[in-house]
Amino acid sequence: MLSKSQARAFFLGGTGVFSLAFLGLTYDSHKQVPKQTNEDKLTEQVIRGKKIWEKNNCMGCHTLFGEGAYYAPELTKVVERRGKDWMRLFLKDPQAMFPGERKMTDYDFSDEQIEDVIAFFEWCGNVDLNGFPAKPPLGRVAAPIVTTGKSDVPQPELFKTICIACHSVGGVGGIVGPALDQVGTRIEREPMKDWIRDPQKIKPGTPMPQIPMTPEQLDEIVDYLQGLSNNQ
User: What is the pLDDT of residues 28-81, one digit of tens each?
Assistant: First the structure.
């Protein structure tokens, strides 16, 4: 049993030690902030994007750094996950990207505002959060099994930045839409062009969005997909 004086000394000593440890860890955490948050990359554009995020109460549906609502996707790594080109299209018209499905409000952002929001998300994605958010484990389990992913035609840039978010080739890409490794054996060239050009016209209500593209970009994508069928 400790005497009263010993208990008092033990309490005061322990309090002092843990207080010093707490202050030391707090000081060290503050020293790490500039490096871990990329403070030097906190540009005016990033700040404008953050103000747009706050003004429109995006956290009422989404989470960022794990904080917010869980109605809509977590957005800390959205630039890494989706890519800037996909985000530009989505923010311009959320409903067009997922007809009849997405509930996100169209805020009628200007092109400049969209770039500001993307810059903000890019900065958020580069913050060192010690592994948060973890990459979903189901992506590896649910990845489509394919036999080939080779084409004689190089993969178009538009396919890399937009189409791959939903579709996969050679086991690489999204799992929202079907794998496209053998699509050229199922759909001939002209029907494929008609489908990509305006999916809603061919099949009203389809989740496939109409992606703005030039005739040259459309030909590049069709050439690539048809080239996949030549390597079966």
Answer: 877 777 777 788 888 999 999 999 999 999 999 999 999 999 888 899 999 988
Q: Helix or strand or coil: residue 189?
A: helix
| Count of domains observed in the chain | 2
Of residues 97, 71, 91, 61, the one with CA closest to residue 177: 97
Looking at residue 143, the DSSP 8-state letter turns out to be: P
| pTM, entire model | 0.69
Q: Are residues 117 and 158 in the same domain?
A: no
Hey, what are 52's tokens? Answer: 């747009």
Listed as ranges, residues in the chain with pLDDT below 70 are: 98-102, 136-151, 229-232
Q: What tokens appear for 116 in the block?
A: 């500001």
The CATH number of the domain holding residue 178 is 2.60.40.420
In 37-155, which residue ranges form alpha helices assigned H by DSSP? 44-55, 78-82, 84-92, 94-97, 111-125, 138-141
Residue 186 belongs to domain spanning: 138-229
- The radius of gyration of the chain's CA atoms, rounded to the nearest angstrom, is 25
